[in-house]
## 1
Amino acid sequence: MEFTISQKDFSRSINIVQRAVSSKNTMPILTGIYLEARKDKGLHMKATDLELGIEYWVKADIITEGKIVLPASHLSGIIRELPDDNINFKADLDKYEAELTCLSSRFKIKGFDADEFPQLPEVNIPHKITLNCGDLNRLIDEVKFSTSTDQTQPALTGGSMVIDSGKIRMVATNTYRLSLSSLDLDGSPEGKKEVILPGNTLSELSHLLDDDGEVEILIGDNYVRFNFNGIVLVSRVIEGQFPNYQQVLPKEYNTKVRVDRNNLLRSVRRVSLIARLDSNVISISVKDNKMIITSQDSEEGFAREEIEIESQGPEQNINIDAGYLLDVLKVLNDDVVILELIGPLNPLTLKKENSDDFIYLVMPVRR
Amino acid sequence: MEFTISQKDFSRSINIVQRAVSSKNTMPILTGIYLEARKDKGLHMKATDLELGIEYWVKADIITEGKIVLPASHLSGIIRELPDDNINFKADLDKYEAELTCLSSRFKIKGFDADEFPQLPEVNIPHKITLNCGDLNRLIDEVKFSTSTDQTQPALTGGSMVIDSGKIRMVATNTYRLSLSSLDLDGSPEGKKEVILPGNTLSELSHLLDDDGEVEILIGDNYVRFNFNGIVLVSRVIEGQFPNYQQVLPKEYNTKVRVDRNNLLRSVRRVSLIARLDSNVISISVKDNKMIITSQDSEEGFAREEIEIESQGPEQNINIDAGYLLDVLKVLNDDVVILELIGPLNPLTLKKENSDDFIYLVMPVRR
């Protein structure tokens, strides 16, 4: 097995597939990157932690074919530090050992038998849809922060992806707050399909997706495959039932608030400096085009912010977790957000202005 | 107590004195910043962890005088997040409580009785010298990474500062490597003065010193005081005897090497990727204008780098800790460095070209 490849191409490719390398040491070979030199197709690279797998093809000058698995951390560290020149890669496939040469640098790395590397799963009888990479990235970014970290309820640690009636919808909730983001699809398939993607899959997709290009999604029963920009990402889905959130989405509201997102973000952040010393609960009062945000008056101090808003409807007072409001205000980039309130025991709803593609709910805190 | 101050000035001043705030919670008042409003002088701020103290005066519009101590983390968090406008500060000195108002933001913070805040120590009968801030910064940066972290030998956790015969010299060592950096002083006082500055003092000085302006150093027996750019930094000195390093400084060498610093840095860093999997020991061979750097041939792999150098003298082979070489190569910014070698059991010496103001020794590793 021998090939030459530019340092830049090799380093970039390793950075892509390395995201799927296992951080746990249960199977040593999974700490590695699979490399296969094919005269017809170039260098094939893949990595997997058995939940997530990423594969990538990169152009290389293949001299002799072969395959080997090398420890990802050593390989990526070395390639990143090599000069911007051509790298010669030669592997002794009996000893599972690779030799890398670049100008006057020479490295030997011990690896693993490539035949023992697991195959990435196939997605059978998939539901197939296509959308813009930037759109999928928006869907993911708008929901992924709402996933739960509580491993006793696995379904909540992921994001629900639903394809139905020409729409794609992503939802995540930890039962105290919920994000719902949706998009109209061009020519989606018949029927409804629903899977739960692991939180880590959402994070890695968000890292790898550019705004450019299209992504093809093949949704099976146990696996979902994403094809974009030459990258193949295969993710296991989380088994279990995602909660029926439709019933908690408020159908109406009493008071509507139009507020500058950045003003609200900065004010909540300041009040939170005092509130988080207690339990990070802030009180929001809305009355006559003014919003007052306060912390509880505690041993540590007190904070009060006043913001100009546009409000319609009766006065409102609600207590919520400041962190839940900060999370969503940081992710959106709209100038203005809309808040809808019913009463102190009902969820606060946050939406975009002039768009129905995003709904965020925060449950109130009773004190 | 009441004053107004610009958010920018207040935030900048807090950042300066906050560096001396205690990170331990042994005395709650030491987690605070002392604030004193004086009609004649503005706002006086200070903080100390009893080893290090920093004070600073900042311009403020003083309405009524008074003093209070406020928790540094709350105060700095709030001031940093406030808008770029004027802040009104009003304190209730009976309740030890301050109220901050800025546009439509209002904060109350509970604090401490300023009378209980410790005085920064005076430096009696000091030895006084003056030098450029940039020069002191260089002296510190060139030695501070060589301090020891072993608390059982307190003298080695600091840097020795010696004023003698018109020179200032800083030295740090962990017994496996040593940095010595020196500078000629204009008009230094008679006699020799020697103190050990704590490692943390060196770090904080390095953070606060700009390249501009002059620093006045008052060296007493137990404390050293640095005055620069309106900042007063008082540091306790470490008691104990600094080792007599003069005897380990090699008087001569057998082989001299002139090498590009950046080439050497990048090569050692790459070999270290493999070497650190073992014990981070690298072998350096010098012969006929070539330097070969290799890792041990271990279970994990092998690395070899070859660099063009200019060498005079017999062939040399030495094993050293790669980290010790990387530390110094990262800190220097010369294009070229000089290595002097005696033999495999003698220290490796690293110097600047055309300057005697820096010496770095690394002890060899025996294998």
## 2
Amino acid sequence: MSESRTELSQLGEFGLINRLAEGISTQNHSTVMGIGDDAAVINTGDQYGLLAADMLVEGVHFDLSYVPLQHLGYKAISVNVSDIAAMNGKPEQVTVSLGLSNRFSVEAIEALYEGMKAAAKAFQVDIVGGDTTTSKSGLIISISVFGKVEKEKVAYRKGAKVGDILCATGDLGGAFMGLQVMEREKQAFMANPNLQPQLENYEYIVQRQLKPIARMDIIHELAEFGVVPTSMIDISDGLASECLHLSTHSGVGIQIYEDKIPIDRQTYETAVEFNLDPITCALNGGEDYELLFTIKQEDYEKLEKHEDIHFIGHTQELTKGNRLVTKNNNLVELKAQGWNHLSGQKEDN
Amino acid sequence: MSESRTELSQLGEFGLINRLAEGISTQNHSTVMGIGDDAAVINTGDQYGLLAADMLVEGVHFDLSYVPLQHLGYKAISVNVSDIAAMNGKPEQVTVSLGLSNRFSVEAIEALYEGMKAAAKAFQVDIVGGDTTTSKSGLIISISVFGKVEKEKVAYRKGAKVGDILCATGDLGGAFMGLQVMEREKQAFMANPNLQPQLENYEYIVQRQLKPIARMDIIHELAEFGVVPTSMIDISDGLASECLHLSTHSGVGIQIYEDKIPIDRQTYETAVEFNLDPITCALNGGEDYELLFTIKQEDYEKLEKHEDIHFIGHTQELTKGNRLVTKNNNLVELKAQGWNHLSGQKEDN
């Protein structure tokens, strides 16, 4: 064993993943893409298979004092489906592994499962297996998802070319603001347990946090419109972080425009109420599970009228860097303040 | 929410899985087999894909006071590979999701990964993704595995017919006795920290516990000999429990013979030293990760001379039940004392 000790917090989540991924090579011909995208790509013959996995840990990813188990079950499936969507694929099977402490009743686990089954139905995936075991502390949900994509339609992070148009779906920053509202209500409740949570003006953003809906609708519509994104990623860590991922993998710079970034009115107003900059929330607030993708300029007309696809920027030579053009026409370097799940702190990456 | 509260311990692991599996139906044509076998079976075109997942939790499945991280990494991959072997398939990709507490250094996680990489190389699987996150208490390892099998060669739990021959590979009970030895040495060390662990006479069984090797060699040999098992399962919970699974799924009774059950000499002698019945250890001790399968009588000759395949019994009409024939020619009903991972207690099932 090595004598040196490096703390996990010194590396951060992305640093650790990069360090562990070093020296991992693939040996099977069927492995088309290993570590480094939203899902692994597996050659299954006529099509590609897609494989991804996500783990959700109580106290790290969710707080059961305000997250209903049914919503949590739905979200656990949805975030995995989102990884398959981000490859332009369709999810078909999931495995569900649960670590459970004795604190949970059978009825509680059934509520969790009800949410999973609702999501499975909504996204047309089958729950086909998994594992159930004891946990020493709280709830652990580990899901893997298998999906399919036609070989010529797979969308990697790495495919963007200079001059492509950058698209974002839905609206951004809402899930982050929903979390802020629920945290505030929790603090208020803890200070005075007679208080009822005040959530009626925040329904949309709370829903964005509790029950994100993977954008499979967009994947189906892209197929209908005959558009294959040149690159794609799901927006789980914030728009800025995902832009930088596309940039790194594709070897292009990305320029986005502040006035094009889609922000819902409730997100905007709540951010202002919390003395936060709405744009910063959209850039760095995670868990929206929208899609960020690039298309060729010639495909613009096909999507132009889509109400829920927003053209927020374009790719450029890598030497021009990754930049935000503000409303005042200033150029600001894009930096990701991704959530560091290992330390629970925001980190630059 | 329901007002009643049912404790998890009232149902046990198998009971909970059965309860959650109720009401789960499959909706995709590609799902050939969902919950209920060692792996799910997915139609990917010319072949079947196989998908399985397992979660290992510190303090439940392993004790880091005597389990080296490198061995643990190897074992985590091996037990997942074993699920694919049990379908007569070949594993090709795995995802690795880790929950880590701050107690672990980067070097410790690298040691864990070294073991995983060694197993990946040994079993020719690629580590293609996963997730890394914080855990509030200890180490959580959640792995999913994807494999392939030719459609006409898939082996389910359900395929045994009356009159088939029952085969077990390797030897049984060793992993369980290895665990007993390590637990004893841990107790001795805790009573007197100056004591060195005495493991030199127990190397084989300690290895069986720490670093089980999935029997992919057997899968390759069965293919060479042109034998497709009529049913198969891996021996993770003990021989008796697995016999009952094959019985339930196939709708046949199983008769095994005490004098045919393969037990290594070190396992036998250690069991006697611990005042345990070696046969009981083989029947109910888990984690050997050998294979249990049935073959047609006409295939017997093809495997007859294989040194590591043991013909321990046969199937019979379900009405004859599941029985052990003792050395004295007594008939004893087979009962599974499977390990209950939820309560940490042995349970009948």
## 3
Amino acid sequence: MRIKVINPNTTSSMTEVIAAAARAVAAPGTEIVAATSPMGPASIEGHYDEAVSVIGLLEEVRRGETEGADGYVIACFGDPGLLAVREIARGPVLGIAEAAMHVASFVATGFSIVTTLGRTRIIAEHLVRNYGMEHHCRRVRATELPVLELENPASGARRIITEECRRALAEDGSGAIVLGCAGMADLAAHIAREIGAPVIDGVAAAVKLVEALVGLGLGTSKTGDLAWPLPKRYTGPLAHLEPFSGGSGAS
Amino acid sequence: MRIKVINPNTTSSMTEVIAAAARAVAAPGTEIVAATSPMGPASIEGHYDEAVSVIGLLEEVRRGETEGADGYVIACFGDPGLLAVREIARGPVLGIAEAAMHVASFVATGFSIVTTLGRTRIIAEHLVRNYGMEHHCRRVRATELPVLELENPASGARRIITEECRRALAEDGSGAIVLGCAGMADLAAHIAREIGAPVIDGVAAAVKLVEALVGLGLGTSKTGDLAWPLPKRYTGPLAHLEPFSGGSGAS
Amino acid sequence: MRIKVINPNTTSSMTEVIAAAARAVAAPGTEIVAATSPMGPASIEGHYDEAVSVIGLLEEVRRGETEGADGYVIACFGDPGLLAVREIARGPVLGIAEAAMHVASFVATGFSIVTTLGRTRIIAEHLVRNYGMEHHCRRVRATELPVLELENPASGARRIITEECRRALAEDGSGAIVLGCAGMADLAAHIAREIGAPVIDGVAAAVKLVEALVGLGLGTSKTGDLAWPLPKRYTGPLAHLEPFSGGSGAS
Amino acid sequence: MRIKVINPNTTSSMTEVIAAAARAVAAPGTEIVAATSPMGPASIEGHYDEAVSVIGLLEEVRRGETEGADGYVIACFGDPGLLAVREIARGPVLGIAEAAMHVASFVATGFSIVTTLGRTRIIAEHLVRNYGMEHHCRRVRATELPVLELENPASGARRIITEECRRALAEDGSGAIVLGCAGMADLAAHIAREIGAPVIDGVAAAVKLVEALVGLGLGTSKTGDLAWPLPKRYTGPLAHLEPFSGGSGAS
Amino acid sequence: MRIKVINPNTTSSMTEVIAAAARAVAAPGTEIVAATSPMGPASIEGHYDEAVSVIGLLEEVRRGETEGADGYVIACFGDPGLLAVREIARGPVLGIAEAAMHVASFVATGFSIVTTLGRTRIIAEHLVRNYGMEHHCRRVRATELPVLELENPASGARRIITEECRRALAEDGSGAIVLGCAGMADLAAHIAREIGAPVIDGVAAAVKLVEALVGLGLGTSKTGDLAWPLPKRYTGPLAHLEPFSGGSGAS
Amino acid sequence: MRIKVINPNTTSSMTEVIAAAARAVAAPGTEIVAATSPMGPASIEGHYDEAVSVIGLLEEVRRGETEGADGYVIACFGDPGLLAVREIARGPVLGIAEAAMHVASFVATGFSIVTTLGRTRIIAEHLVRNYGMEHHCRRVRATELPVLELENPASGARRIITEECRRALAEDGSGAIVLGCAGMADLAAHIAREIGAPVIDGVAAAVKLVEALVGLGLGTSKTGDLAWPLPKRYTGPLAHLEPFSGGSGAS
């Protein structure tokens, strides 16, 4: 099975962290194809960054359909473009926020999300509502660490995040922690040991859920609003994103 | 006051319908600047079309900021890119679905939305929830008319939509109708006379709400998650969308 | 266009503050007719005050209908009698809490309400739910200033309210402030400058929204539950409030 | 124990039906004091009727406080003025819609409301939400019988309502019926026998709940927003409704 | 009327406290039959304890049906087995959490629950949602007192709980307190005097609500999902719980 | 990895269907241990059946903990005892309703549940709410097939269920189907081919989700309310269910 894990920002060092986290949990027969968005923002820290990041993501998924990907992971905690991607994918597609929250709800009656900047908290809160997690998610906590500082050893990111996770357990009454950024993918195991409770990285969670769905023989439903895009004219600089004329969007 | 009304699809004949509807209600001192997206889909009928349409929309807003626009209307009923646009706009920004639903809630305790294809109904339903209109919106009704057929006299669109609006009043217990596509902007007055109840076109509604906000001296809040995008590197074909380095995103 | 702005309490000095706020934002062609309730409580600070205040309000609206009012503003933050007024009005009717909250949701993803006494907070919270603003309104904050103290320079009201607004931004993660009393109508501009974020006074907001609705040719729907009251016998001291027998409630 | 049951409309024949229903279930030591509103509409069939009806109701409650009433029932299915009445009452106060819905939720996992005119359905739906009954109330059904026709033997009201109740069980998956008008108080037992499921009249339900609360030694909380109204000046024709100056609102 | 009050744990000294609270409020003609579960946990402090406790409870209800019980009270704040019990009972069944929350909503617009261990708070929170009390219940507060410590004078339970109730009024803006454990049944009157606000013990509340329902002639609906269990084979150690073959579950 | 799949009813032929469905999707290294409840009802078709079924389930989980089970599947669509089981399990525990709904939400924006008897629909509806699936689940449809009839070829179950699934797609606007009974586990693939949309059997879904969680190194959180049961005395016929005294509930 081939799972394409796409980092929608352009920072390839972050893609490496993501790919490592994906491979660490992949089943023996699973091939992880990691991709970095070929265009757009170096990190995604707001609605604007997120909106622009979707184009590179869509291009990678279109390429994935021709390369034979069996499923996709969108490796940014805002789950940008999730439904748009599902329209052009035959196999299952998981966002890492979606994956992490659902997994957390299976192992605890309440969880907290620990994320980066306060200004992105609203994005997580919108996802909590979209996924029906209002009663499971006790709180979204911002550490005010910029995304790219996660890679900077001098930032103290690991310590700051671990402490915020510890506070979340104590103050929010949560039984599990969801890490709110793909750039934290390498921290989950360490923090779990430190705080003695499940800590969920969405990249790993999404890979395992895509494996599960493919194992069930399930792809994205092509009945209803996730059916292939209607054939129509696309023009201008994005004309190459026009859905394929062969009756389906991307095959 | 200058209000930029942006059609996020590339069909300029639809922009003309939109511009006419906007000008028909604009106050004496209001200048309507209508723009057609320079790229992307000819109509927006799904999550994929919508995601791609955001880029052309953002480019038009960036241009608007340099042209001195006092406010913006996003003239597609899915309100694509609404929060992203707000991040890069100084003045107020209204989506036409948002505008129409709020206005409907001021004149009736319940309304119905009459839209185009069934596959876009889910988009309207998500907006209903995002805007807190679950208790006001009684039902979203699809006519199965493709967007571009609205312009085709042979489609019988006016009659089909009028009949659906009539059924909505009778069956849904609604007191008002929201037209669910920018391409229906020229039908509101006619249908209102036919059915004897308020019929709200989002383009006109959004223009009047932007006028109201500018009249109140209000722009988009630059405190919190709608603040100017953080300065950062954008690369590749979308590098030109990089936020301005002068501390603000688009000025 | 003639907009009747009704202060449902009997304190005419407060009506003057309200009228000034309304006129300050009214468009050139808009005439503001300000009225003070002819009976009932001097201020509205609870469910009982509010219930009694509705009678004077209804009388003023009935008078407005004969005077040719094109729309109405109910200038008390509890929006007393809103749906009852809509039944007897041809034109649009806005409550100031309703207007302020909707406007706030257009310029920020979250807002806080700063109001007077803690005991009226429940009224604001009920309105937040009725208007579908649970996800936009982050918190309702009471200053424990009685309504009539707002007019007393010795009360320090301006300073106290400004500080509460500042705390709201910092602690609630809000991007805008809604002032929770008609008696604060003169403070919005000052506080906005002080805290650097949008501050919304409902009186001004409601006037502009009524202008917008009238500009759209919209009145209150007379289809459904806001139709003219059914003709019937009213007796006793309130017999004069009996709906007109001519088929409509108030014409 | 003395329970004052107030009919907020002015139709004394309806008060008689209400009083009989109340007395039929009252415990041995309970005295039912039935009162008809001294002013206002002959029936309550909309927001406007309801708003006006509150004044007569408040007067009767003020009188009740001096007469030694131990609790109150508001005998109109819209529960007009419920929180206002609670502010000026020492003992417990129940609305009949409130009482009926809560009781229904104790004997079935889902119930339907069968009411009079379609235009009042919105009032019932708002109460359903206020009381947290969204998941218990499966549907509000209108029979289009005007309130005063319930007393007219030629209207066929009993048959029409019984049939609607039967349909409710079959179509809504409900296990119990709530009758949506005080004027139906005499029909509950008959319909229950006919349809073989619990049928709840709010007048009887409210009397028993007030008895229960008084039996528990509970009155309305005077801590928080239901505390006695703040002392203040009331003027004009409603000046006599001014809260008592002795520190409490009505004693 | 005979009301069977069942303590689903096996601690008979707690049953005595419960029985005394029930008898203290019972009407003259009401006989309270108190029962202690014949099996299972000595106290209920988690999902597991609760699940096991249901068997003894069901056995006592089956016995109650043959003994002529007119209604039941489940005297544990988690309301274990509520719907299962309703299936096998002819008369009304109330859980004490259910009873207390509904009663609290009649005397205050907001209440707080003061309970025992933090780990059982989630159970109360689930009930708050099931009963539609999200808007009435302001907060669930844990004292970290184990259930059986409530009977230990050296635990300081009375003082600790009273102080928590006082804080609830001050910090949560609540007008009433719900005691979150059957073992607190004897504290309500004392705490109410101390804090000057309604304090509701669910045992007493449930007894009065069952009396009210029986007084209304209402039993559990046997239409729909609370109908007698379908006849079927039960085997193994719990074979004796097989529903009666005579067409009804337990008669 | 060893996953214990427990059928909480006593019908071993149904366990065989369940076991086959589980093994059909299990990964190479996964051992499926299927167990039939040793006591209680032959099928679960109501709240009472469900409550009683929990005891046998808990016994099988306690045994599973000593046998080295790495995770559990509760193979009844009501997910009986889910949180109780989680308290006494070290590894992850999934209910089949929970698993199926979450999986359905990954492949479609809306799904319908097709279940057995109308009287069990309420159980599914409660789970929909508990799992936050109100916006994803469009409708719960009953076929009125008793559970044990699913095994009877003469019942026409396969055809009846297939037709109901087809109607669900057409009428509910759903993109996927969730089968609402463990006894339907062998029908998913067939129906999916017939209707051309994803059909999800909870048994298979739960097995794959447990595999995913174990693959992520995640067990049930032992922080908070899912921690091991508190040590305490259990007496009577269920004394053997007393939590282990060694500090943990079941090890």
